[in-house]
Amino acid sequence: MFLKVFIFIFIFLFFSKNVLALNITYEQILDNPSDLELNLNYAKQQEKQGNLKLTLATLERLSMLYPENLDIKLYLLSILIEMDSAVKVDLMVRTMMNDPNTSDEIKKTIAGLLLNTKEEEKENKWFAYLDLKYSQSRENNISGVTKTKKLMQEDNLLVYPLVDGKSVVKNDKTSTRALSLTFGKNIDNSSSFFVNLAADVNTINKKIKGDSDILSSSLSYFKILGNHYVSPYFYVNSLNYRRQEDYKSVGLGFNNTYIFNEKNNINYSLGISDTVYNNNSKFSAANESNSNVYSSSIRHNYNFTNDKQLATKFILNRTETLKAYDTYYSAGLSLMYSQIYPIGTLRIKSTYLENDYDEKDSFISTSITRSDESLVTSLSLEGQVNQILPFVRTLNKDNSIFYSLNLKNSDVSSNIANYDIERNFFTFSLTKRFNVDVNK
């Protein structure tokens, strides 16, 4: 039912040409640094939040990519004036006034901007915002009942435990309440750093295992070096489960986006994470699940237009644990098509992975080494609530409430029955953002 609705929406919206400003994330800008409309919306968003140096960096980049676009130059000039950057203002005014393509009307606009130059120097180096989020996810196979309703043990196939609605559950829902604080500083026109602190509380309706509290923190740095958009990062996550092992993960990595032109850019990333489980009286062998994950990917982004993009990503990962039968290589391909519509951004994504394990798990089989193939397909729509419910504009004047809808199918085919599982998910979320003025 949900899939049919989403397919209908997609076919209807495919012919729509009007695009409204969205809440643009930092990750989207890294992926699409040459996308004109996306970056303009991002510049306006950052200006509204008081992040003028990030706005300036975005507009300067767009001005280089689109040198004939006078609207970008005017917007850039207004920001330079607001920041009281006298040298840059003077250079830009001279350049535009001497440009034969600058009309008399544009020259009058420039003169008007100069008359409104503020005397006081305005510094907006720090920025911060708080997000409150609620989401609910419905799943048709939360316990991972196998396709064949069988389990393998010591080379024998056993009947999967009956669904009892408590320990073995099919249909269920998970609710998440989350709080996230992001703050950072614009170091200069080409660099900044971000810090994020977050807490999630996850509650499962029926299944007795799986409720969790998650504390997470991350630090990332962003730097523009020519056509390179570099971002190293570091994170620490702590997961507290009910009736399951708790663990902590520490990771670091590196992202870089290189712009070839306004149509093509490439992104590559490298990362490593270390996961350590907590031993206690109930889970005395928990540390056997400790793992290191080495991840890598390279993605090509092709912009058909300012609001349509196709991304192709190649993935290669390595997971190592103390148990050799849980150690494996993962390789695959991901395709994603995204398009901006008046009601939000639509994304269609499909990821195919092959997992090849190092050794056999003798408890399950003495003759078969596990090998999996997975295909995860998702359809999502996200944007501002005002875009889908215009009548709430009076209550949401600052466009600070966002929505997300996601349909996902996960189909894992394995040569061992225990891991031959298919799941369907539908997730809905709402996020309220509070911008914090930290420059007073």
Describe the structure.
The protein is an alpha+beta fold. The chain has 2 domains: 2-115, Serine Threonine Protein Phosphatase 5, Tetratricopeptide repeat (Alpha Horseshoe), CATH 1.25.40.10; 126-436, Porin (Beta Barrel), CATH 2.40.160.40. 20% of the residues lie in helices and 48% in strands. The protein has helices at residues 2-13, 26-31, 36-48, 52-65, 70-82, 86-97, 104-115, 385-388, and strands at residues 126-139, 150-153, 156-159, 172-188, 191-204, 212-225, 228-241, 247-259, 264-277, 291-305, 308-321, 328-341, 344-357, 371-384, 401-414, 421-436. The strands form 2 sheets. The chain has a 14-stranded antiparallel β-barrel with strand order 1-4-5-6-7-8-9-10-11-12-13-14-15-16. A hairpin with a 6-residue loop joins strand 11 and strand 12 (328-341). Helix 3 (36-48) runs antiparallel to helix 4 and helix 4 (52-65) runs antiparallel to helix 5 (70-82). The N and C termini lie far apart (51 Å). The model is unreliable at 1-22 and 118-124 (pLDDT under 50).
Estimated share of beta-strand residues: over 45%
CATH class of the largest domain: Mainly Beta
In terms of quaternary structure, what is this? single chain
Low-pLDDT windows of residues: 1-22, 118-124
**Global geometry:** elongated
- Structural class from helices and strands? alpha+beta
Number of domains: 2
- Find the CATH topology of the largest domain: Porin
Q: Describe the biggest sheet?
A: 14 strands, antiparallel, barrel
